[in-house]
Amino acid sequence: MSRILAIGDVHGCRHLLEAVLHRASYNPDRDRLILLGDYIDRGPDSKGTLELVRGLVSNGAVALRGNHEQMLLDAIRNPDPVNELGTWLDNGGRATLDNFGAYSVKSLAKWQDFLENLPLIHQEDKYIFVHAGIFPGSEIQTDIDLL
């Protein structure tokens, strides 16, 4: 691999992710692509972004889970609007539901396995990649720290 490309916080803007990859002349045979999470919410094309990410992963990219994917997973597990569902909707989830043409978070459950299997941390050579943060020198990193 000649380069490591790390991209985070796409937030439903598939067209911008595609533009960045094009501008960087991304080549999966030559480059290592690491996507740092938050593929959904807020932007106009969360569905297309997830489809693109899934395709990139199938061609060797690494995709980490971000806090927005975690909020969606939490909402699927507990669709109570006062708790997890409400938190997700208030943080961009409404745009994602609209983009999917969905009226219920349960209709996004087909993405649950893919999102649950996204790792929270990835090490590549001497680099450690997470969505949010780590505490250097600490032996304990919680999921909340990483997300």
TrEMBL record:
Gene3D superfamilies membership: 3.60.21.10
Domain Calcineurin-like phosphoesterase: 3-135
GO CC terms: cytoplasm
GO molecular function, one term: phosphatase activity
Parts of the chain that traverse the membrane: none
SUPFAM superfamilies: Metallo-dependent phosphatases
BP terms from Gene Ontology: RNA decapping
InterPro entries membership: Ap4A_hydrolase (IPR050126), Calcineurin-like_PHP (IPR004843), Metallo-depent_PP-like (IPR029052)
PANTHER family: METALLOPHOSPHOESTERASE, ZINC-DEPENDENT ENDOPOLYPHOSPHATASE
Record's protein name: Calcineurin-like phosphoesterase
Taxonomic lineage: Bacteria, Bacillati, Bacillota, Clostridia, Eubacteriales
